[in-house]
Each structure stands twice: as structure tokens, then as C-alpha cells.
Amino acid sequence: MNWKSVTALKAAVAVCMVLVVAVAAGAPWIIGWYAEIRDILPNAQTAILICYYLCAIPALIALFYMLKLLRQIKLKRPFDKASPNYLSMISWCCLAVAGICAVGGIWYPPLFFVCASMLFLFLAVRVVCSCFVAAAKLQEENDLTV
User: Helix/strand/coil (H, E, C) string of 62-122?
Assistant: First the structure.
């Protein structure tokens, strides 16, 4: 991966972090506007708002670990022992969001789609994490070879 790609990805992750915080600041207004358009009941509005605030925390954590992983890639150490740990944290954040949305889906059923998407993402990142664990072991063996 070239430097420009890593730099662009780091910038995109940083923008996403800013957007998560900005949307959190304006969430009551945004959800109120959305509720008017979709004619959503007040308890569903509250569920959406609570779910967003609760999901913002693991989302920011996952984005932070994405930055750390991109840093490893930029340093040309993608298969360092730390990389699988970063991917593992990202996957657990996906699972946390899935759990939050599963509960929120009781009051606002479209959140079940977010739950299903995040469960799929959890599984996909776990598979990638397993690949990185194997690659890290191979890298370690390769580094010890004279």
C-alpha cells in the first residue's frame, strides 16, 4: 500500500471521527427532523437517540484502533503482534453496536438491520483478525530466520 493511500485513509478515518462527534452534538435536532418526515412515535425517537449516543462510543473506539492499524501499515509493520489486537478491538466494537441496536430495535425495528449488518461486520473482521494472527506468526518466524 502506498503512502498516499494510507494518508487518505487516515484522513477519512479522522473525518469520520469528527462526523460522529458532530452528529452527536446535533442528534436531537436531526432525529426530531427525521421523526417529522417519517412520522415516528416519541418512544422510537428516544430509542434512536439513545442508541446513537451509546453506539457513538464503540464507533469512536473502533475508529481510534483503525488509526493505530493504519499507523502500523505506514510504518511497514502491518503484521506486527499489535495489529491482530487492533482488529480484535474493532470487531468487539462492532459486536457492541450490534447488541445496542438489537435492544433499540424493539422500539424502532429498522435498527435490526443495523444489528444484522454489524454482526456480519463483526464476523468479517474476526476472519481478517485470524489471518493477521497467522501472518504475524509467519512474520515472527521470518524475522528469526537468518
Answer: HHHHHHHHHHHHHCCCCCCCHHHHHHHHHHHHHHHHHHHHHHHCCCCCCHHHHHHHHHHHH
> Tens of pLDDT along 51-72?
999 999 999 999 999 999 999 9
Taking phi over 0 as left and psi of -120 to 50 as alpha, with beta for the rest, 71 belongs to alpha
Residue 146 pLDDT: 61
Rounded CA-CA distance 96/3 in Å is 32
Q: What's the Cα-to-Cα distance from 54 to each of 2, 90, 137, rounded to whole Å?
A: 35, 16, 36
Q: Domain of 88?
A: 3-144
The rounded distance, in Å, linking the Cα atoms of 130 and 88 is 9
Count the residues in the chain.
146
Domain count, the chain: 1
Q: Is the dihedral of CA 25, 27, 28, 29 positive or negative?
A: positive
Average confidence score pLDDT of the chain: 93
pTM: 0.90
Q: Is residue 43's pLDDT more than 70?
A: yes
